[in-house]
Prior knowledge:
- This protein has 10 helices and 8 strands.
- It has helices at residues 12-15, 68-76, 91-94, 113-126, 141-152, 180-186, 215-221, 223-234, 266-275, 298-316; strands at 48-53, 97-102, 130-135, 156-160, 196-198, 211-213, 239-244, 281-287.
- The two termini are 24 Å apart.
- Keywords: Hydrolase, Manganese, Metal-binding.
Amino acid sequence: MALEDAKNQVDQAFTRSDPRGLSYENAFGGAVSFLRRRYTKDLAGVDIAVTGIPFDQAVTHRPGTRFGPRAIREASTLQPYDQPYGWGYDPLGLLNVVDYGDMAFDYANTREVPARIEAHIGGIMDSGAAPVTLGGDHFITLPILRAVAVRRGPVALIQFDAHSDTWVDDDPDRIDHGTFLYKAIKEGVVDPAASVSVGIRTDNPDTLGVTILDAPSLHRDGVDATLTRIRQVIGDRPVYITFDIDALDPAFAPGTGTPVWGGLASWQAAALLRGLAGVDLIGGDVVEVSPPYDTTGATAISGAHVATELIALYGWTRRG
């Protein structure tokens, strides 16, 4: 295939016959799915199911992350013409990646959402596929981790974030974007000794044993030293990656509910994700893209690239 195929290819989200391979549909037209993958609810033979959870309850400052999955999908239409630069292989050619669509839920029945998320992700994993999730606020990662832990045991976690999200929250009924990791550790679904948070730049009195590689240390020590430390912490454990887009500095990702200056540049995030090649990835998510606060679309573009890197990471150890 080549770029001239755009004159014939359209609506590949529905019309593509081969689940693998690149797509040359015009970026500005056609039905929008993540990386122009086929929309399907049939996960037989699927390696990765990309799914959206357009849920936000209450964020610290600016709501709107419910629109994140839609914006990330649209931004991703710039990417499926070529294999991701620098990997040296084509994950879309190797893997059967589909767009599983969004999770359905009753917006007026918030309390049922956690169980719905857990069942949604659990169903993906039970099919044999790995979940790559587009959020949504960071609360969604808690029920995702519950689903993962049921099937894989306590999780080794790599968290990219401006906030550690381990503030005390012992109320099981609270649905809070800022305490997902506190609850995950207290519930035993995350192993803090094998977990690391990267890019942190807000104070928290207790990080519950998670290794903190804050933004100043990354800027001071560099990407390679940070990667070495991450690998020391997680060892050879299967790992889940959660990427809060506010890990990036607001200069690179202004469209988030909780922007904090002094964060990662996009090139640092790209280098860190690429440098994790070889980890045994269980799944991952990118959360808190809030497009109403970024008319340029840069935040959604970053979110789309993060999700693509997660796919490439998953495929790296399965190249045969």
